[in-house]
Design a protein that fits this description.
Number of helices: 21
Shape: globular
Helix content: over 70%
Order of helices and strands: HHHHHHHHHHHHHHHHHHHHH
Number of domains: 2
Radius of gyration: 22 Å
Number of strands: 0
Structural class: mainly alpha
Amino acid sequence: MSILGISFSLFLISGIPISGSIFLASFLALLPIYNPLMAAEIMAHSFITALDNFGFLAIPFFVLAGNIMNQGGIAKRLIHLAKVTFGPIPGALFYCNVLANLLFGAVSGSAAAAAAAVGSSMGDVQKKEGYDPAMATAVNVASCSSGLLVPPSNILILYALVSGGTSIISLFVAGYIPGILLSLSALLVIFAGRKNLPKSSAESWSFKELFKAFNAALPSLLMIVVVMGGMVKGIFTPTEGSVVSAAYSLILALIYREMNLSHLGKIFSDSVITTSVILFLVTASSAMSWVFSIAEIPSFVSNGLLSISETPWVILLIMNVLLLIVGTFMDMSPIVLIFTPIFLPVAIKLGLDPVHFGIILIFNTCIGIITPPVGNALFVGCGVSGVPIVKVIPKIIPFFLAQLVVLGLITYLPELSLWLPRIMGLM
């Protein structure tokens, strides 16, 4: 255990990527028990075993679908719908940013993709209309993480597979209310500071314009109905749904004529790179999980937490604090891969449903990706806007505090996550 923890920390500090740090630390932790050849064989076996899961095929297809949407005009129509919805009210472009991230997240399942697509599309317009660039970046970063909760979500798929078979469809449906609450928390923070917000220059707002924007975005919105409806009704599995999502988005992009077949090479290569990063993290973390199991770390953590208190709300508070701390320096995928096998057994002992715990865990990662020093969404959002991180951090603090309140609600009010799956007969 000490070799694993110390070597992992040293590798991270030295600048080795998280996946490489996990791999090397796991290998070193095996050397006191096995000879180098046997340790290498164990690592190789854990890699193969980790990927031997049909459900992982959903990840590359949802990644591909998200990339096609970003390039094929789908994101632009969703963003336009969001902009027209709020019209000329004070701070309209901020409200639009939140809604656009929610809509784009609901069809792409990626926080980083939402931050890049929405931020790049709205940045220039916000500058022209007198919006504070740092505040605009904070709004974009704080609201883009709704894509991790509102399906389809690659990180929810990852949790489902790592947790040992939690229903992906149940997790997808359970994420709707928490995802909407995350967006609402951003809207409330914006509303609280409405007195200092500029008024949109849009003068031609009308219900006719709104109806026109809605019709233009309707085919994109229907993808949510087709993919989620098909999965909930049992017409196809989540993996098959990911293929439907990619095919639907490709057909739509070709109809919009904002991309052609020559663009597919770049889209496919970007999707392969993103998928490779995710799957290498999966395999490396699988090896670390195997080391955890032989060292009986999950049992050790479980006994340690339960020795502090047997009161569920206290244990959940401790878990959330630990996950929030870890989230400041670790990306969402390794958090899910490393901490699911450690914390899930404790949660089950406390009587939590695995679906509920999954939403709690993912919501923690939503907060983690907007916090320095390793906030993925924070870096993407600042990179797109060109605003230094040091100027954005003070602006993002109110959003961070609002998300902590929502995290508390989701943690201690299970029905916020479980009500929809139950009424739909998924649980």
